[in-house]
Amino acid sequence: MEPTSTALSVNGKSEQVGVGPDTALLYVLRNHLGLKGTRFGCGLALCGSCMVLVDGQPRYSCDVPVGSLEGHEITTVEGLGTVEDPHPVVSAIVAGQAAQCGYCISGIVISAAALLERTADPSDEEVRRALDGNLCRCGAHNRIVRAVLSAAAELRSRDGRR
Amino acid sequence: MTTVAASLPPSIVANPMVDDWVQFTDGIVEVRSGKVELGQGVATALAQIVAEELDVDVAAIRMTAAATGVSPNEGYTAGSLSIQHSGAALRLAAAEARGLLLDAAARRWDVAPDVLTVVDGVVVAPDGRSATYWDVVDSDLLHRRVTGTAPTKAASDRRVVGTRVPRIDLPDKVAGRPRFAHDLQLPGMAYGRVVRPPSRAAALQSVDTAATLSTTGVLTVVRDGDFLAVVADREEVALTAAERLRADAVWDERATLPDESDLPTFLTSAPAVET
């Protein structure tokens, strides 16, 4: 295997990673860039723990080869907010205590953030559909849906578009 | 002494010192438990128990994740026993720590310990003198055995236990900050992948490891009976090497399920013991 280098843009930062183009983004994020918020769940693009945004669209990072990502913007859960200024979805999930083990939840934050980017006032049904690709084995789903709806309301009030 | 020890919770018997469980550093109460937070909320519940007995705010408690060599050994986190075992131990250890801290403050001020009160970690004397737990503690004050004789709070006096306290582990988990064992990255860490057998009770007949072992980044192949795995310097190498190894393994498979058309014979032929 000849050494290769791939240029990535992650959370607004340019990164050069020395991996082959077939390497799944997930391992690059976690092991090469130290971004542990993107989690390995199934490795088969089924569970959503590894969800990231690619140009704003939710994608399973365990199933995206880094070679396909040059010129695209990747956002991980770490790129959505900070400790001092968390993303409204993060705040709403914490406020609603909407997680048990929490292993799936950073992936859910990604899917929910993508939904709220394109839909300011989603219905309960739309939230459920947007989170369809994220499994939560603990069963915190109903609290999660309520938290996402409350984050949507918070974002609308911030934007002054009620 | 032996009668007291016999009535102590099993976790105290196994980890008998007060400072096995609680330590006071820089305005923080470090609480050590051998039970693991798995989403059941035990870290928060145990923090509440300690906060209650010490009369400190839950925000002043820092739960140390179970760590080999540091945490009290409490065996498995299983069987709905975490509060029963770790909670009982921490309640006694915290009550004991409170008593030792009050005794130390009383000696310092030459008053009786029972005239002292505690408000959020500050020990207050009737004449207004005060000192925090962290002012009072010294390196070996808490390096004593838990006797189990320190009074614990009556249920009717509890102000923290029994209330809804937000989970202390959730903010990190929701925001994706490292919080799981999987997130540990140690110096020189290697990555492994197991090659699972293709079916139940399959036996590993043979495996040609040459191609896998010659892959750049592969450190070793592990074979132990029917267990097969590969270790590599990078996770992505371990993944592809495991696929190579899987292709080069030959398994003996055999049927393990009973004849579906004759289940009564299977059931009645199974060994049975009359009790």
Describe the 3D structure.
The complex is a heterodimer of chains A (162) and B (275). Helix content of chain A is 35%, strand content 13%. Chain A has helices spanning 25-32, 88-95, 105-118, 124-130, 141-159; strands spanning 6-10, 13-17, 51-54, 57-60, 73-75. In chain A, helix 2 (88-95) crosses helix 5 (141-159). The radius of gyration of chain A is 16 Å and the shape is globular. The mean pLDDT of chain A is 95. By secondary structure, chain B is of the alpha+beta class. Helix content of chain B is 31%, strand content 18%. Chain B has nine helices and eleven strands. The longest helix of chain B is centred in the middle third of the chain and has 28 residues, at 82-109. Chain B is elongated, with a radius of gyration of 27 Å. The model of chain B has no long low-confidence stretch (mean pLDDT 94). The interface between A and B is medium-sized, with 36 and 28 residues.
Top keywords for this entry?
heterodimer, A: 162 residues, alpha+beta, five-stranded mixed beta sheet, 5 helices, 5 strands, 13% strand, B: 275 residues, three-stranded mixed beta sheet, three-stranded antiparallel beta sheet, 9 helices, 11 strands
Brief write-up:
Chain A is of the alpha+beta class and 162 residues long.
Can you write the helix and strand succession of chain A as a string? EEHEEEHHHH
- Runs of chain B in which pLDDT lies below 50 for 5 or more consecutive residues are none
Largest sheet of chain B: 3 strands, mixed
Q: Beta-sheet strand percentage of chain B?
A: 15-25%
Share of residues in helices of chain A: 25-40%
Kindly estimate the percentage of residues of chain A that lie in beta strands according to DSSP: 5-15%
**Number of continuous helical runs of chain B:** 9
Overall SS class of chain A:
alpha+beta
Counting H and I runs of at least 4 residues, what is the number of helices of chain A?
A: 5
